[in-house]
Design brief:
Layout (H helix, E strand, L loop, with lengths): L6 H5 L7 E5 L6 E2 H17 L7 E5 L4 H11 L3 E4 L6 H11 L3 E5 L5 H9 L3 E6 L6 E4 L17 E7 L7 E6 H14 L7 E4 L6 H13 L3 E4 L5 H11 L3 E4 L1 H9 L5 H6 L4 E4 L6 H11 L3 E7 L4 E5 L13 E2 L3 E5 L12 E6 L11 H7 E2 L2 E10 L5 E6 L4 E3 L2 E3 L1 H9 L4 E11 L3 E10 L7 H9 L10 E4 L16 H5 L4
Parallel strand pairs: 1-11, 3-4, 3-5, 5-6, 10-11, 12-13, 13-14, 25-26
Antiparallel strand pairs: 1-2, 6-7, 8-9, 14-15, 15-16, 17-18, 18-20, 19-20, 20-21, 22-23, 24-25
């Protein structure tokens, strides 16, 4: 595939009359010609209210064609910052302020705590008004102004900023340039042999790198079509499959397992709608699930390995085979290597830290020199994952060096949860940790020491946490201990604590 270095350039790939976006509710599709016009109008309207290249626009919209269209159209001339609609007001306030957003985009008439957060911060509100074909919209709001850098974005401009949870309580800002995200879209389209005839049924959330890059931009790179669902729903999945006739979809392992659980009663639909392939990413896919999916749907399941800092994809199992259950594939775009602690690149078969470099990889965290010093070595980005390459060049992940909790693809910073739990007046000490989970991979747990003379139930503490944390961050299991176990060095034992306490879910 020839290089394309801007999102506007991706829109130029598709044939004018071919559908770019479709909706599940039967609306007319948005063609590539109409999408190009929509992007140009959106950039012009943003410029007219003083928002241009490099200016950040927070987006809080439900899954669907408008979210996909707003992301693409705004990114053609400004910097997008999609946020999880399930956040609480305090979370929205943190992210909007941390981003230094010049505006917040919401759906007209939609109630969201993001409105109150933006109002408190004095951030202008822009409302999406859907009209006509799937994804088509106008923006209302803002006051007249002049953009410092008007016009369409250039390759070096930041297209997308996302926060990533890590081992610190404060999430890090990951800026991804137009070149970063289009390089990743090109890598994905090439790995999957995407073509204009391909139709992706998107069930992934569009505030997450997986759905934004793999489903949306990967499809646009090939001139194909994205069917934008309201989000994953196992009860509606097979109806959508029959109605929309996709050629592929991408999802996280928990979604695949939910689909498998309903596959037998939908056998006729599976036979009528022949998928070309299925993709899995964002968390480790158990080998048996991969084999069951391939047997059930009669097509390859391509597992890939990605992360936000790489604009999503790093490795992928080959579409045409061989595919190795339990391994995340071969390098698929960026260079991938295994590094020792001293910075030496290790030979095949030796275990070390997975490192990457390439045009899809971020140039560094924003305003965080300490994190960048730890993350980059000799031009390589250190993923925090441990692994090795087998004799066929397939990457096997053997563990994680970071304490990050991966709950079915949703990343949770344990220190962030620690901080919220510790704010309860009855809590003397809290330590958040990962609990192994058969479907999610990991679940959020917490060990808590109460203040002397205090009483607190698990339910009361979880309800307290839910006021400040999105649901997926709230511990599903809380254990009250007289003392939190420590390792040999005296450090609190976060890694391996579930096993030590005999906790499983």
């Amino acid at each position: 595939m020839s290089p394309i270095r801007t999102i506007a350039g991706l829109l130029d790939v598709g044939e004018a009359a071919r559908p770019a976006l479709r909706a599940t509710e039967g609306r007319a599709p948005l063609t590539y010609a109409a999408f190009r016009d929509l992007a140009a109008r959106t950039v012009a309207s943003l410029n007219a209210i003083g928002i241009g290249r490099g200016d950040r626009v927070a987006i809080v919209l439900p899954n669907g064609p408008e979210m996909a269209a707003v992301f693409v159209a705004v990114a053609c001339g400004a910097t997008t910052a999609p946020l999880n609609p399930s956040y609480r007001e305090d979370e929205f306030a943190f992210y909007i302020e941390d981003l230094r957003a010049k505006a917040l985009i919401v759906m007209r008439g939609a109630e969201t705590p993001a409105r109150a957060a933006a109002a408190k911060l004095g951030v202008p509100l822009l409302e999406v008004v859907p009209e006509g074909p799937a994804g088509s919209f106008t923006l209302e709001g803002g006051t007249p102004g002049s953009a410092a850098l008007p016009g369409m974005a250039q390759p070096e401009d930041v297209a997308l900023v996302l926060h990533t949870s890590g081992t610190t309580a404060r999430p890090k800002i990951v800026p991804l340039t137009q070149t970063n995200v289009t390089a990743s879209a090109t890598n994905i389209a090439a790995a999957l042999s995407l073509a204009p005839a391909d139709v992706c049924l998107n069930v992934m959330p569009l505030f997450h790198i997986h759905g934004l890059i793999a489903a949306v931009l990967g499809s646009l790179r090939a001139g194909g079509t994205v069917v934008c669902t309201p989000g994953f729903d196992a009860l509606r999945f097979f109806r959508w499959m029959e109605e929309e006739r996709p050629s592929w979809f991408t999802a996280v392992p928990t979604m695949h397992q939910a689909i498998l659980s309903r596959a037998e009663r939908n056998r006729e639909i599976i036979e009528r709608v022949k998928l070309r392939f299925i993709r899995s990413s964002s968390a480790s896919l158990p080998g048996p699930v991969m084999e069951q999916m391939e047997a059930t749907f009669g097509c390859p399941l391509v597992e890939s390995y990605g992360m936000t800092e790489a604009s999503h994809q790093m490795c992928s199992n080959p579409l045409a085979g061989p595919r190795k259950p339990g391994k995340v594939g071969r390098p698929a775009g960026p260079e991938v290597a295994i590094m020792a602690d001293d910075g030496t690149i290790l030979p095949q078969g030796e275990i070390g830290e997975v490192v990457i470099r390439g045009p899809n990889v971020t140039q560094g965290y924003e305003a965080n020199p300490d994190a960048n010093a730890k993350a980059f070595t000799q031009g390589w980005f250190r993923t925090g994952d441990q692994g090795l390459f087998d004799e066929d060049g397939f990457l096997l992940l053997t563990g994680r060096l970071k304490e990050l909790i991966n709950r079915g693809g949703e990343k949770v910073s344990p220190l962030e949860v620690d901080g919220v739990l510790s704010a309860h007046p009855a809590v003397a000490q809290a330590l958040t940790f990962a609990i192994p989970h058969a479907k999610l991979g990991e679940e959020v747990g917490a060990a808590v020491v109460l203040r002397e003379g205090s009483a607190l139930t698990e339910r009361e503490l979880r309800d307290f946490a839910a006021k400040s944390l999105a649901d997926f961050k709230v511990p599903r299991k809380v254990v009250f201990l007289p003392e939190i176990p420590k390792g040999a060095t005296g450090k609190l034992m976060r890694i391996g604590l579930a096993e030590k306490l005999g906790i499983s879910l």
